[in-house]
């Protein structure tokens, strides 16, 4: 079968015909891949900049891809929750089996670091024509969101991060006088798919949202921002017109992009660091530390998601498809064949929000 493979830490990707055992054991299903999404992590692996990526044990190659949706083709013995024809998305991170968090289904908080992640480290991913997986790592996708179900994985990470925001801010009474979050302002740095999902989810929870980039929006970004009632803001115009912030979310990984915004913080605010990058350096001085201390500013880094967050993401996609129609589908700005996969995982397509590989 065809697959897109990499050889970390070496840069580059290629389409290759591979042979893997497709035996379906008890408790497993065989899945025909329909779509796989491309994200910054994939491109970091292909460029060689992500140094923690690694193949499976005793292998020299890794099948790329962690954002996927497929259809069940064959059901193994003892499987009752899935049947042939069901649409599913696979969970990416698989626990270490040692720490308590992993034992209770929260490998996103693994304490040993000995987890594996499909298409990233230690486990083959989903950029291939089909794969076999244990049912415990699968989440069903309803037919009405078949066209956007591959967005479940990136959205699941955002669902987890917003849960963390609300849980951490339970350190005080943080709702408004009318019991909502409609008096709270959120600044989201970066207008890619993750930034767009943060904006949409925070807006769904009632926040006033400003989606930030250092340029004007593309026509698609302008449409999405207008439909979800957020403000797209070009930061090169200066920061004076931005409101005071209760939440700042950085999806870029560049300190130079979000540190200038910190002066916008209200008391008791929260900074969420979600993006990852390298090389960018900005000095943090004692005055900033004092500001954080004196104003009860919380800082949280967030990565990955649990299976329950995947299920919540499916629910949100279903809700938004009903409420907003074409808004979320328009986030998918390019659809390419597997043969073009290596090219699009090497560099972004102009105007891209989300590029997807169509396998079937």
TrEMBL record:
GO terms for molecular function: D-glucose binding; glucose 1-dehydrogenase (NAD+) activity; glucose 1-dehydrogenase (NADP+) activity; NAD+ binding; NADP+ binding; zinc ion binding. Pfam families: ADH_N, Glu_dehyd_C. Substrate binds at residues 41, 117, 153, 157, 304. It catalyses: D-glucose + NAD(+) = D-glucono-1,5-lactone + NADH + H(+); D-glucose + NADP(+) = D-glucono-1,5-lactone + NADPH + H(+). InterPro entries: ADH-like_N, ADH_Zn_CS, Glc_1-DH_arc, Glu_dehyd_C, GroES-like_sf, NAD(P)-bd_dom_sf, Zn_alcohol_dh. The keyword Oxidoreductase applies. Keywords: Carbohydrate metabolism, Metal-binding, NAD, NADP, Nucleotide-binding, Oxidoreductase, Zinc. Its EC number is 1.1.1.47. Residues 147-358 form the Glucose dehydrogenase C-terminal domain. NADP(+) binds at residues 191-194, 213-215, 274-276, 302-304, 348. Residues 25-143 form the Alcohol dehydrogenase-like N-terminal domain. GO terms for biological process: non-phosphorylated glucose catabolic process; protein tetramerization. Its cofactor is Zn(2+). Belongs to the zinc-containing alcohol dehydrogenase family. Glucose 1-dehydrogenase subfamily. Catalyzes the NAD(P)(+)-dependent oxidation of D-glucose to D-gluconate via gluconolactone. Can utilize both NAD(+) and NADP(+) as electron acceptor. Is involved in the degradation of glucose through a non-phosphorylative variant of the Entner-Doudoroff pathway. This is Glucose 1-dehydrogenase. It comes from Acidianus brierleyi. The lineage of its organism: Archaea, Thermoproteota, Thermoprotei, Sulfolobales, Sulfolobaceae.
